[in-house]
Design a protein that fits this description.
The chain contains 20 helices and 22 strands. It has 669 residues and is an alpha/beta fold. It binds adenosine-5'-triphosphate (ATP), 6-O-phosphono-beta-D-fructofuranose and magnesium ion (MG).
Length: 669
């Protein structure tokens, strides 16, 4: 990659960002933000330089390119530090980073400094011992170039790791008011980080009282609830928190925690004042109706709330559709149905119109059920609500059958989807075993993350080959997929292949590629399953002159349109009740989620920073490989890249190496 790559034509729809937070970030812990596919956008203030080891642990390994951007501000309006000192600290930061395990791993370092200052360019080159090319034009366009850089990776996977060294908050505020605004960026809140003894960190969620002073509090009506009186367990302790990592060594720091979900002694809403709404966005997922039902029933039965409305048709429904009144009676049976009784949609997120509608209708609790995109939308709604100073609690309930939401143990609907996928795999197995050289080929969902396919394969034990987006593969030649199919057919006379829809997209021949974007800006995938089946058939009939019988099964929409299974139903109930307790207690700007088996409130930025991926250097992938006996399909070059990946100093500090499936990193080839 060179500076030239910054000029590639990426449309405005690709300009996702989290960097608008930069001037409010308190430390590097809170400063690692991610974009589509998991780009680490790290904002390093001059005095954070000594923390580069933390950066390494959070984003190390996958990133190959490092971009330093140095804005030198000469207005002086907000900076009380002399420029000479800022220059010094900048160089210290750069040097410290460049020689750190993280910095030294990058293939190339690009330094962006004001183009007119050749002296700075030379200094940078000296420090990083690499050719440094200044980016031309003014500071605003430099920022735009960085966005481009983030989005230039293959298969939509970003390749850049960006470090901003800021020397003036004032300048960046100025930029935000200027070009940032035209990029549709919003100012976000400062993360609430509470620290305690022995490395305890609480990544807390916002509260209405953070921006509305002197809010009245009320006793929690649960105190009079016969069910809770019976067990004499009413409220969670105000200081209860849940650790993000439960595998520790005796000297490990206590690490990051999230606020434990549950009812609080005091609430910030009187029951008769609550006017709640529920909206579902994005694709379908088993359990949506259960969550709707349990929010309505939880509000009604636990808190005596009578006014709950449903917003029809996703985010756009706030301003373009009718609402529907929801009562325990009207939602009584809905959990037995798939889909969402409210309807859903992609696109149409107009923050101003949505919050106008919330304000006009007098809504004061907003429950937003949806995937990664929806949670990003919820975060923006929260910011706008806060900016207007409204007493409105915004709660997210994460949904996705793909299980690609980070931090949480798993998303609701995932188990049901995996279970339903068994029926398709069984059918494929029956078909394959009933005929000579039978191949059962099943395509399942999983746009960027292959969890459904991974778990469905492990659960079934009938699968001989599992293909996921995270694990590249190739078709022809030694070690390729075709060779493996031939071997398997010769060994046992049949085989079952299960593939995620996002796998092998890069293999599709150009004539087969028709993909564009959906209304939310998600890249639409081409039907790689169909294409693969055609390639397999062609290969064996034309090249090998070998008769095979391939049956293609595509149950993708069937596995997400079903009602949730029993375990997801219970999970949905707990999520919904946790959301209700949180909103009633005045918390806002949070997503509910299960962390290490406990319900928690997670700040939006943690849910939105990365995408959860299957890690193919993790033991779970080893379990998969030993279950199917398939080769890794990595080309020698790709295998080298994997082998080169260094493990962090302390494995326990990094999710991807902890025992289990919770991951935050991705591998980019
Ligand atoms: N960055 C964003 N900011 C504001 N709104 C967003 C953002 N990304 C997505 N949205 C909105 O969120 C809604 C749902 O997004 P999307 O279609 O990506 O589905 P999702 O919630 O990610 O669910 P799925 O699991 O099906 O992908 C859409 O209405 C979209 O406009
Ligand atoms: O066809 P739709 O409704 O846009 O949804 C398809 C996508 O939704 C998901 O189920 C969830 O993101 C993906 O697995 C899939 O690619
Ligand atoms: Mg999504």
């Amino acid at each position: 990659m060179s500076v030239v790559d910054f000029h590639c034509s990426v449309g405005p729809e690709d300009l996702y960002t989290s960097v608008d937070q930069h001037f409010a970030l308190p430390s590097i812990y809170a400063a690692v933000w991610s974009k589509i596919g998991g780009t680490g956008f790290v904002l390093l203030r001059p005095f954070d330089c000594y923390q580069s080891g933390v950066v390494d642990r959070r984003v190390g390994g996958a990133r190959r390119i490092c971009v330093f951007v140095y804005f030198r501000y000469s207005g002086g309006e907000c900076s009380s530090v002399p420029f000479e000192l800022l220059d010094l600290s900048f160089r210290a930061a750069l040097l410290s980073f460049a020689v750190s395990p993280c910095g030294s791993r990058f293939e190339q370092v690009v330094g962006a400094v004001p183009w007119w200052n050749l002296y700075e360019v030379l200094q940078l080159a000296l420090v990083v011992r690499q050719p440094v090319k200044p980016l031309r034009s003014d500071r605003v366009s430099q920022l735009v170039y960085i966005w481009y850089c983030i989005n230039t990776g293959r298969r939509g996977m970003p390749r850049a790791f960006v470090v901003l060294v800021l020397d003036s908050f004032g300048l960046l505020k100025g930029l935000r008011n200027g070009s940032f605004a035209t990029m549709g960026l919003e100012c976000k809140s400062m993360p609430k980080i509470v620290t305690g003894a022995h490395g305890y960190v609480l990544e807390d969620v916002p509260h209405l009282s953070d921006y509305i002073p002197n809010l009245p509090v009320y006793p929690n009506p649960l105190e009079d609830n016969p069910a809770y009186s019976a067990v004499r367990q009413y409220f969670v302790h105000v200081d209860d928190s849940v650790p993000e990592k439960v595998v520790v060594h005796k000297d490990s720091p206590r690490g990051v925690h999230f606020r434990r979900a549950g009812p609080r002694e005091k609430v910030y809403f009187e029951s008769e004042d609550v006017n709640a709404c529920i909206v579902t966005c994005g694709g379908l997922c088993p359990g949506l109706n259960t969550v709707i039902r349990e929010i309505v029933c939880g509000l009604h039965h636990m808190y005596g709330v009578k006014r709950v409305i449903g917003i029809n048709g996703g985010y756009r429904g706030f301003y373009s559709k009718n609402t529907v009144s929801l009562t325990p009676n009207s939602v009584n049976d809905i959990h037995k149905r798939g889909g969402t009784i409210l309807g859903t949609s992609r696109g149409g997120h107009d923050t101003k119109k949505i919050v106008d509608s919330i304000q006009d209708r007098g809504i004061n609790q907003v429950y937003i059920i949806g995937g990664d995109g929806t949670q990003k939308g919820a975060a923006v709604i929260f910011e706008e609500v806060k900016r207007r100073g409204l007493k409105v609690a915004v709660a997210g309930i994460p949904k996705t059958i793909d299980n690609d939401i980070p931090v949480i143990d798993k998303s609701f609907g995932f188990d049901s989807a995996v279970e339903e996928a068994q029926r398709a795999i069984n059918a494929a197995h029956v078909e394959a075993t009933s005929i000579e050289n039978g191949i059962g080929f099943v395509k399942l969902m999983g746009r960027y993350s292959g969890f459904i396919v991974l778990y469905a394969t492990l659960a079934s034990r009938d699968v001989d080959c599992c293909l996921i987006p995270e694990s590249p593969f190739y078709l022809e030649g030694p070690g390729g997929l075709f060779e493996y199919i031939e071997k398997r057919l010769k060994e046992q006379g049949h085989m079952v292949i299960v593939m995620a829809e996002g796998a092998g997209q890069e293999l599709l021949s150009e004539d087969f590629q028709t993909a564009t974007h959906d209304a939310s800006g998600n890249k639409l995938l081409d039907d790689c399953g169909l294409w693969m089946c055609r390639r397999i058939k062609d290969y064996f009939s034309k090249k090998k002159k070998m008769a095979i019988n391939l049956k293609y099964i595509d149950p993708t929409y069937m596995i997400r349109a079903i009602p949730s299974n029993a375990s997801d139903n219970v999970y949905c109930t707990l999520l919904a009740q946790s959301a209700v307790h949180g909103a009633m207690a005045g918390f806002t700007g949070f997503t509910v989620g299960l962390v290490n088996g406990r319900q928690t409130y997670i700040p939006f930025y943690r849910i939105n920073e990365v995408r959860n991926h299957v890690i193919i250097t993790d033991r779970m992938w080893a379990r998969l490989l030993s279950s199917t006996n398939q080769p890794s399909f990595l080309s020698p070059k790709q295998a080298n890249v994997v082998a080169e990946m260094e493990h962090p100093d302390t494995q326990l500090l990094d999710d991807s190496f902890a025992d289990g499936e919770k991951v935050i990193k991705d591998i980019t080839f």
